[in-house]
Write a structure and sequence with these properties.
The chain has a ten-stranded mixed sheet with strand order 5-4-3-2-6-7-8-15-10-13, with helices on both faces. With 253 residues, the chain is of the alpha/beta class. 23% of the residues lie in helices and 32% in strands. It has two domains: 147 residues, Thiamin pyrophosphokinase, catalytic domain (Rossmann fold); 85 residues, Jelly Rolls (Sandwich), CATH 2.60.120. Keywords: ATP-binding, Kinase, Nucleotide-binding, Transferase. Pathway: Cofactor biosynthesis; thiamine diphosphate biosynthesis; thiamine diphosphate from thiamine: step 1/1. Belongs to the thiamine pyrophosphokinase family.
């Protein structure tokens, strides 16, 4: 498969590589308020992060998961701070973590923190390649939908990609036009999906998937490409779409 030099290129699997190989993208990491453990996925993301933000109750999750480890101290705790426990607050203040109260009832703590993080990086000249929110799924469905909505909001504020990651899957948006997505055979799971989450995608063409689309229209109530898969031995896939699509796929354990 050949790709134009003008294609947008995503390399999501590079975020999960633990070692010297790979591009080693610089991550702006946001820790969300869902339970997690300090495992290889989280540790890899943390090590690749140039700056780290906890979204309100995400600080409690980090505190509980890291067991007071000095290796996992965030730069900021942001949000309306109504979920921040006093023990967590006291501990991180002693570690010189900054608290940023962001009162805005029209946006989630994830959205508010992400917007603040973008501005903070801009003002301080902190360079990064992408935003990563972890763990992004596994709780309430409405909160999962809100996390996806945040990706749409961020799309209007930055050209940097935003990834939602858990230990089992990863999701991101591809915008209209042609996008090339690199595939890591050793890390890919057994499934992937292309979902017209916000509106009808009137014309979608793909290459490299097990079941490709050829100028197809996609929308809820009609065609959505869930439970798809990457083709055998492909090192990248392409998606050409008239409107944004949510791409999500499994991560090999």
């Amino acid at each position: 498969m050949s790709c134009s030099n003008h294609d947008i290129i995503f390399d999501p699997f590079d975020l999960l590589r633990n070692g010297e190989n790979g591009i080693q993208q610089k991550i702006l990491l946001l820790v969300l308020n869902l339970p997690f453990t300090v495992n290889s996925t989280f540790t890899t993301l943390w090590k690749k992060s140039c700056t780290k933000f906890c979204c309100d109750g995400g600080s409690n999750r980090l505190f509980d998961a890291s067991k007071d480890s000095e290796n996992f101290i965030p730069d900021f705790i942001c949000g309306d701070l109504d979920s921040l426990k006093e023990t967590t607050k006291t501990y991180y203040l002693q570690k010189n973590v900054k608290l940023e109260f962001l009162y805005d009832q029209d946006n989630t703590d994830f959205t508010k923190t992400a917007m603040f993080a973008l501005e903070e990086c801009h003002q301080k000249g902190i360079e990064f390649d992408c935003l990563v929110a972890y763990p992004a799924f596994g709780g309430r469905l409405d909160q999962t939908m809100a996390n996806i909505n945040t990706m749409f909001q961020l799309k209007e504020k930055t050209k940097k990609p935003c990834y939602l990651i858990t230990d089992d899957d990863i999701a991101f948006l591809v915008d209209k036009g042609k996008t090339r997505i690199k595939v890591e055979r050793e890390l890919k799971g057994g499934w992937c999906s292309l979902i017209p989450i916000a509106c009808k995608a009137e014309k979608v063409t793909t290459t490299g998937f097990k079941w490709n689309l050829d100028g197809d229209s996609m929308e809820f109530g009609s065609l959505v490409s869930t439970s798809n898969a990457f083709g055998e031995n492909v090192d990248h896939v392409t998606v050409d779409t008239s409107h944004p699509l949510l791409i999500t796929f499994g991560i090999k354990s």
